[in-house]
Amino acid sequence: PSLPRHTNRLVKEKSPYLLQHAHNPVDWYPWGQEAFDKAKQENKLIFLSVGYSTCHWCHVMEEESFKNKEIGEIMNKNYVCIKVDREERPDVDKVYMTFVQATSGGGGWPMSVWLTPDLKPFAGGTYFPPEDGVHRVGFRTVLLRIAEQWKENKDALLESSQKILEALLHVSEVCVQGQESPPPAKEVMATCFQQLSNSYDEDYGGFSKSPKFPTPVNLNFLFTYWALQRTTPEGTRALQMALHTLKMMAHGGIHDHVGQGFHRYSTDQHWHVPHFEKMLYDQGQLAATYSRAFQISGDEFFADVVQDILLYVSRDLSDQVGGFYSAEDADSYPTTASGEKREGAFCVWAAEEIRALLPDPVEGATEGTTLGDVFMHHYGVKETGNVNPMQDPHQELKGKNVLIVRYSPELTASRFGLEPGRLDALLREGRRRLAAARAQRPRPHLDTKMLAAWNGLMISGFAQAGVALGEQEYVSRAVRAAAFLRRHLFDPASGRLLRSCYRGKDDSVEQSTVPIQGFLEDYVFVIQALFDLYEASLEQGWLEWALQLQHMQDKLFWDPKGFAYFSSEADDPSLLLRLKNDQDGAEPAANSVTVTNLLRAACYSGHMEWVEKAGQILAAFSERLQKIPIALPEMARATAVFHHTLKQVVICGDPQGQDTKEMLRCVHSVFSPNKVLMLADGDSAGFLYRQLPFLASLERKDGKATAYLCSNFACSLPVTSPQELRGMLCP
């Protein structure tokens, strides 16, 4: 390839997203002091562009505007231009997204914001087309108009940016409003269930018509709601809503039937045509949610989906040193000869491609049936393509098919006169051949950045799957990833987590010159992962590290005045606001997950001020939890866990003993949202015995592995049979 014409400072960065912009004619700076100083010295406005590497419209705006030489010249002449990867700097993203949402009523990426030299926002939006159209102003016009305003009305702009900042500080504050107590759990749970039930799609599952998102937070809420109300009609409905949604998603096109894993979301009501990017945080949360569905229902269908997700992550998102990559893009080149990328090109099929790959006659089926006929029928493939043009505004999928399971195995088998038992093998062979053909296509871009928070979510996915499916190899994979975090995303000298690291040359792991410090979500998701990993592996080292990180989280992020944790640290002068996220969305809000973390931490340490902190967080979000808990389903779930008090399930026994293993298997096979498992192995010098003196008084009955159910460190009578234990866990 010829040498690039332009090179800017982003060439020194590690983020794959920033590197994608290193050869734009725009003189991009990364977020940092050098850019801020330049803006002040030259008295220039800042143009801030925030995106991420799998964002479709970010690519579009780059192609149209940031690669355009004239637009680049306007930007360089009038502004100091800063590019941010929102996955590296969620704190910067959140501050300015709060502004864009407050002033324009909507938000999204790419985010485009104009700032004064002291970083205060005064104008912003998302995607801008390059030139003026009938309905929208073009990017070029906006750039010139704002530059003109800065020349003519500088003082007015500065004054309005100050007012905007004061208003934002006011709207975004989450704190305790007079009352110090957590909201009533029963009402919060009932309201949240009602709100989910009202927005539930009876036919296809999910909680909106379209677009449809996987939202594991909703499903986990419903599982907990069911577990606490198993015998009521509402409880039964909650379980049915969750399981039906998970089934419909797994059958849909949002699930990659050939290459495994789940795409980001569906553009239609039927889970059919997705936006094709695949994110690590979705795989991690969905692996955990499908594991719970299997635990509760015993239906192998859900276990198969778990294995499918973890196969995808192990194969395509795993670094050989043990970490997990962030994401795979939606857009790719249809063939090696193509000049431009198309969305979904890697994943979609023309009918004739499938016919050519699956021409074999099927023995024992109706005369003349080929493997292609069976496969195309089952997966809804049509000769002219199965994508509704409404779902394809740019005609990128015209004539193509997104595979979706249209019939039950029984129906497809009977349609071709087959034994139902034979269908599974035929479909598997079809998927295998399509996968081999797909491997010849150019792959989508892989974002090889490794984030502590998302690695935490994925470790939880592997650990919970290992426990629910009884698969030791999944637990081992989680252990490798946790060891990776400890080695590459933790600074033992300061005791602090780092946000990100990167795949370097020759598959080494690299760090930026100035490493980004961990944010609240990094601590929270890693601590949750370490608790999950302890329960799966029973290695006490993970517990010890989790509790150390919890102390560090308290020190860096706790708000002693208004309660709850801030998303970012106090000592960054370039951040105008310290925010608290109040929405459980694609990922749960950190404060929501931390409530359960604190309760678990207290159970493992006897440190009761953590229970108090959990209550204070619920009090800080009390108003929202009572009015619109559907915005915080994970925190609503935690309200119930707080209210019902966690039960410590203590197994006294030899870790290697068969009787101990049977008791553990029993605990692992039961879904119980308010249990905490610990193994008392008799080693009185070990970490747990030092933390919890009461363990010393629990003994093995008649030398057998013995279980105790304890609440607030007071224990039930001992039981030695898995059946009795199961009865205690499922009252």
UniProtKB/TrEMBL annotation:
GO biological process, one term: carbohydrate metabolic process
Pfam families listed in its UniProt record: Thioredox_DsbH
Sequence intervals crossing the membrane: none
Record domain Spermatogenesis-associated protein 20-like TRX: where: 7-168
InterPro entries: 6-hairpin_glycosidase_sf (IPR008928), 6hp_glycosidase-like_sf (IPR012341), Ssp411 (IPR024705), Ssp411-like_TRX (IPR004879), Thioredoxin-like_sf (IPR036249)
Coiled coil: none
PANTHER family: SPERMATOGENESIS-ASSOCIATED PROTEIN 20 (PTHR42899)
Name used for this protein in its record: SPT20 protein
Species, as recorded: Smutsornis africanus (Double-banded courser)
Gene this protein is translated from: Spata20
